[in-house]
Amino acid sequence: MKNNASALHRLIAGLIDFLILVSLYLQPVFWLLSTENLTGLLNRFLVLIFYFFILIPLFYVFIISLLITKFGGTLGKLFTGTKIVTSEGKKLSFKRAFFRNYIGYIVSGIFFWLGFFWIIIDKERRGWHDQIADTYVIIKKSWGLVMGIIVLIVLLGVNFNLCTKSYGQFIAHKQLYYKFFTDILNESQESSSSETVKPEISSLWENDGSLIGVWHECNMVPAAWCGRYFFYSSGKYQFIGNLNSCDTNKKDEAGFWVLSNDHTKLELEVKRESVWEERGSQSKDYLNCREGSFVKKNVFEPPKSVELTVDPKYKIREEVSHYPSILIEGKTYWKVADDPVEFGQENDYPEPSDF
Fold first, then answer.
1. Which of 59, 147, 189, 255 is the most buried if burial means most Cβ atoms within 10 Å?
2. Do 214 and 337 touch, CB atoms closer than 8 A?
3. What residue spans of the chain are helical by DSSP H?
4. Mind listing the pLDDT tens digit for each residue in 162-188?
């Protein structure tokens, strides 16, 4: 075949095709990075996953094969004035073009791109993909090399501009991206931790010896007339209601807690309602009603999640200063101890299983 394209022609044509493909990726990246809110970032991120991993891989080779069939080459070939033809000098069929640019490129690139470098040493300037498809790349326009160099320089400038713009957007919104990927990481960690074996529901009311903190709804010394949360290092928690609310049923709950970035998520597993029963004619003041008894009734409900937001500030109490507090469903609880025995008498905090 006469007028075979030189290795330089084919190199410039290949670089043009590569830079066009790069720009097809950089433009959506710039679009992604220009968003200014977390919801928009997530929506655009999902669109780009579809674009990068489904749309481009499926349609790029199809479009390239169509260009070769209709016009005799890729955009890089057309800009450099070269053309892909058969050994008879004719245009390729779509099937043959697809085979050359898909299967043929895989063969040329499988051994460290040796099939592409073969163009340099082959007398007819054919790569492995040309040989297995029986194709040639010939020169059709004498000015093609100069035009190709000009187009290459323009594409380099366009891609450089897209890179600098994308970097500027990244710097401007880096806190948003940090939160976005941190949330993804936290969700991944929480989902993996949720796969671990949890204690049996029946054991949620027991003190397994791993108590790490008691949080109390009264901003005073620990007392039984206030509801409180018990947290265990084993990952479970209990909420024990007011022991002395004789006029109302006492409601307890238990479940699991999962530590996340700046908050703790409570996963409610079971509720327990205890009904007060009087003994004789005892009065219902908060001292004498303790002589009665509670009849426990376990109420199992579908699990639900409750967000526990940690208050970064410290509350001041008259008895002891600098008690940290947390907000659970809008209500403040003060940390009274890592161990309930640390403050007051041990019976100020009976075993949760005794309630």
1. 255
2. yes
3. 7-33, 38-50, 56-71, 75-79, 94-98, 104-109, 114-121, 128-133, 144-172, 174-193
4. 999 999 988 888 877 777 777 777 666
